[in-house]
Amino acid sequence: MNSAVAFAEERNPTDWQSDAMQKRIRKRYASERRFKALGLGAIVLSAGFLAFLLIVMVGNGLRGFTQTELPVEIDFPAMTGGASPSQFVGANGSANLRSLGVQDIVSTSVQIQYGEQGTELFSAGSWQTVQAAILDNPGIVESRTTLYLPVGSEIDVAYKGDGNASAEKTVEELKDQLSTGFNSNFLFNSDATDPMQVGIWGALKGSLITMFITLIIAFPIGVFSALYLEEYAPKNRFTDLIEVSINNLAAVPSIIFGLLGLAVFLNLFGLPRSAALVGGLTLALMTMPVIVISGRNAIKAVPPSIREAALGIGASQMQVVFHHVLPLALPGILTGTIIGMARALGETAPLLMIGMRAFIATPPGGIVEPATVLPVQIFLWSDEVNRGFVEKTSAAIIVLLLFLLTMNALAIYLRNRFETRW
Amino acid sequence: MTGSILFLLIIVLGGIAWFFGRVKATRFSATNPKRGTVHSLPNYHGWYVALWAIGPALLFLVIWNIASPALITDAALASPAAEQLPQGQFARGAILAEARSIASGEQVRAFNPLSQSMVEPYKAAISYYQMIGMVAALLLVFACGVFAWLRIKPELRARTKIERVTMMTLLLASLIATITTVGIFASLIFESARFFSMVSPIDFLFGMEWNPKAVAGPRGETGFGAIPLFWGTVFIGAIIAMIVAIPLGLMSAIYLTQYAPPNFRAWMKPILEVLAGVPTVVYGYFAALTVAPALRDFAVSIGISGASSESALAAGVVMGIMIIPFVSSMADDSIAAVPSAMRDGSLAMGATKSETIKKVLIPAALPGVVGGVLLAVSRAIGETMIVVMAAGLAANMTANPFSSVTTVTTQIVQLLTGDQEFDSPKTLAAFALGLVLFIVTLLLNLIALRVVKKYREAYE
Amino acid sequence: MTELVDSTNSSESYTMTESAVPNISAGDGPLKMTTRNVDVFYGDKQAINGVSIDVTMDNVTAFIGPSGCGKSTFLRCLNRMNDTIPIAKVTGEITLEGEDIYAAKMDVVQLRARVGMVFQKPNPFPKSIYDNIAYGPRIHGLATSKDELDNIVETSLQRAGLWREVQDRLQDSGTALSGGQQQRLCIARAIAVDPEVILMDEPCSALDPIATAKIEELIHELRGKYAIVIVTHNMQQAARVSQRTAFFHLGTLVEYGVTSDIFTNPTQEKTRDYITGRYG
User: Fold this and answer.
1) Is the pLDDT of residue A36 over 80?
2) What was the pLDDT predicted at C18?
């Protein structure tokens, strides 16, 4: 009944139940468990890094949104010689206020309340808070009013955490009077030398303008290139050249784009330094390949049956592309665009090259005015010696991360929402 | 009238042209109900007229904007005020530039009274040529628009023509990438050539001393030896960062693809991707603020000499963390590309999962993984902000990870910071470093893509 | 085909959707594997419905049926390869030499060493021919010395009828062989761990007729040494290589018996329709 085949050598059947074999199996399983644990460990460690980074940033940064304040009682009727609230309403309101000399009023009031050295307790720009308060509610100039003004940076740092010895002592003395308030300066001001007065609005506006320029240049060019390469490009060496350059551009270090911007946009074309226009152009060149590549993938994913159906009822190639392929591929293209824009928003190095690292104390008013962007602002603040800047840097990072998170969430939403249409 | 208003006006006129073209086409479409006598839909005729109206005018404006400054300067120089100007090229140029920026409203007051006197002629010339440009552009809009409108007839192949224009637009758009690549290469080569005319390439590529602050000597500059920078770049980007990123990235990918329950994978993969999305300036700040001091304290506590607060280790570790998702996703792709038959074959022989992974999947996926690592290295050595903020500026040739080293990208940023003179070797050196960086990353990418492609083909 | 034994109806009966209860055992040979009431679910979908069958030594058992009938799914239950599909769920009882292979104490690694498998498409590892064969003995620790390992490699290749073709190039990559050679390499690889049962999942479907003939010849020679179960969509092949045939349809076992009976005198209408080519 057995087929009679002579084998070179017969082996003894393996005894799986033998001690040696059982021991071996146990060892193999132990190694299996170790390996698996190693994998899990790698993941947990990687995620742990992220968590640690976020905790450090949030832990430092949340304090940047608050400021330490001291109450100051200002006797407006006496100090202003009886200014009436109506003076500060309407068109001439701020001009009248300027002639009032609020700065002197504040320093006098402070000296009355906290002594000769009192002004040193406060942030140099604290009078602006008073000015804003008057514009907000002119009625206060008719009475003695107590306002909460931001303290100096050193005291602020000491009150929030651990400052230098003398500031700690001051905090100890004023403990009962110090309080914490919301730091509206941070959201509405621009860069400043005093950490109590800095804000991100200038940098944020710069980022928004720069991103706008990047988008209106990179998006059409990227989509058009993707369409050309996927739908029209003949297979020849010229097309290969275009493809190779796009793939290479996607891998070129960002700082090289900065060098290009410096050499071409600034030196050759003579565009203004530090301007959002140049920043946007530079970032557009960097973002475009990302859009092209994601766009091509999205276009490729449109099934040929749809093209054939349209061609079959007599649509021209162009009509097929613009009526059918592009609308169907759009969610994918948008996802790629958002991801590319998020990368551009977080980019710093190329912008340093084109001079966007200047101290800019006013928000940019247009595309050719000197501007800075959020990441560069973070970089500049991180270099500041004053300890008050640590929390501001982290706070700016929180804002930047929130923007990026929103964009990425949008991209993920788009991807999931439109992923499986066929 | 400023340029943007003129531009808008032309666009509006284009809209009107579109309307007229469409109306005419609609009319003859209605009178020719028989199929085939009218080639294109009215819309295409509208676009045909609109493109004719806008295109030549815009093209003219572009050329006019490039050509007119020279004409304006000539006109201003012809004015009587110009006779007082000094003869020297340089002084003359400075005054003209100042007058021009005042006249165009960029500057409010002149430092040089002579410039002030030139402002009026300039203003006159500018408004004169602006007027000419505007009138010519508007005339072009009308002339071409009417020309196109007259040509509209039922048998006009408007759609084909529009499609040809669209096609050209698409082609032009895709050329931008090529132009950019050429632009990068040309500008790097051009500026580097100027640098190498001052500093010998041999000294630059093989010199051991980097100290570009040294006073420029007459021929034979010193202090431009880039070897310490290359070492620092490799040390941080290709050694320390990879020691962190490869094991963590690879093991993460293995766990996620082979072991993790689907739920865990669905959550963990995006979380890892977030690591790649964090801006590099944030990593740099994290490295400088948290990691570097901790590492320095650690080094001091175990008695390592030369520990500095800006260390290669801090920058390298943080860069490695940044690269983890990159390595992980490349490894993920490579492992996924190994046919499942291979895995089944091994499992069916009684191999455990880890044996299958270690002895079959990883060896099979190795080319892909290696390609991914090469790409990661190319990313790491081109990374700027982390090293600028955490690695330091001292060009040390050291293998001590706790000491400070500097990198190519750090020095590029350093050299181009502050006041730039565009003929100093210090500034131009940045472009030479950029050229080296560009070539190296390009080569790494080409090799990596080739390796990955070969590997993909092996399983298709 | 050497012996023809009358198929006897099983005394046990099972609740089945089919009107007739098929035989669960066919023929003599020592019992190697048994299955009782096996159901397989992929998520909510039931792929196998109450299959009970006995696999004996000395016989080649063929599973035939139209595509999608569940024969491959069922085969993959026999060495728990379905474990690799997370949504697959197997119920019922499958035994190897009387041990329940889905029992908690059954070690899947050992099980698969004892029940080897050859796949539809040849899947040699991207390693040398030698390492392909040596892989199994190495992971299971079956050889204590290099000589012994060499010996196993040689024996396995000889049994798979590949030795003469590759003995001079054992260090060449296994993927460089022709399709038929690759499949014989995979069979040699399965033999190298000294299994008791070899499952073959349409082993010739990716091969040309000449390579197929060689594999079929090999199956003949291996009979008796191993219990062989082969899934095939090719009825002629089943007739040529097997002594026992099971016909599956829509996840149920329709008929099981001596191959010559099944092909000449099937008891079920469905089987007759299938082998006469009415559907499938």
Assistant:
1) yes
2) 41
pLDDT at C3: 38
Place of tokens 């907000």: A136
CB contact residues (below 8 A), chain C span 220-239, against chain A: 220-225
Residue C6 pLDDT greater than 60, yes or no: no
In the Cβ-directed half-sphere of C165, how many Cα atoms lie within 13 Å? 15
Domain membership flag for residue B214: no
Indicate if B28 and B139 belong to the same structural domain.
yes
In chain A, domain spans: 66-182, 201-418
The last residue of a domain, from among B124, B156, B188: B156
B288 part of a folded domain: yes
User: DSSP letter at A275?
Assistant: B
Average pLDDT, stretch A256-280?
Answer: 87
Mean pLDDT, rounded, for A178-204: 84
- Residues of chain A in contact with residue B358, where contact means CB-CB under 8 angstroms, are 35
For the entire predicted model, the pTM comes to 0.82
Q: Which residues of B touch C124 (CB under 8 A)?
A: 345
User: For residue C279, what are its two tokens?
Assistant: 């559907």
Phi–psi pair at C257, nearest 5 degrees: -175, -170
Same domain, B116 and B255: no
Report, as an integer, the average pLDDT of B379-392. Answer: 90
CB-based contact, A40 to chain C, within 8 Å? no
pLDDT of residue A383: 86
B38 — pLDDT class (breaks 50, 70, 90): low
Torsion of CA B344, B350, B353, B357, to 10 degrees: -70
Q: What is the CATH number of domain C10-275?
A: 3.40.50.300
Task: Quote the ipTM score.
Answer: 0.88
- Among left, alpha and beta (phi > 0; psi -120 to 50; other), residue B219 is left
Residue at B46 is within a domain = yes
What whole-number distance in Å separates Cα of residue B348 and Cα of residue B354? 14
Chain C residue numbers with beta carbons less than 8 Å from the beta carbon of B458 are 126
What is the Cα–Cα distance from A209 to A344, expressed in whole angstroms? 12
**Nearest-CA distance from C238 to chain B in Å?**
23
pLDDT of amino acid A280 = 93
B202 found inside a domain: no
Q: Which fold has domain A201-418?
A: MetI-like fold (1.10.3720)
Contact B278 A348 (CB under 8 A): no
The total number of structural domains in chain B stands at: 2
Query: Of B138, B156, B174, which residue sits at a domain end?
Result: B156
- Whether residues A251 and B270 touch (CB distance < 8 A) is answered with no
Chain A residue with the nearest C-alpha to that of C163: A8
> What's the confidence (pLDDT) of residue A123?
81
Domain range for residue B119? 3-156
pLDDT band at C9 (very low <50, low <70, confident <90, very high): very low
Q: Residue ranges of the domains in chain C?
A: 10-275
C-beta contacts of A166-175 below 8 A and 24+ residues apart: A170/A121, A174/A70, A174/A121
pLDDT score of A51? 93
* Contacting residues of B for C111, CB less than 8 Å apart: 350
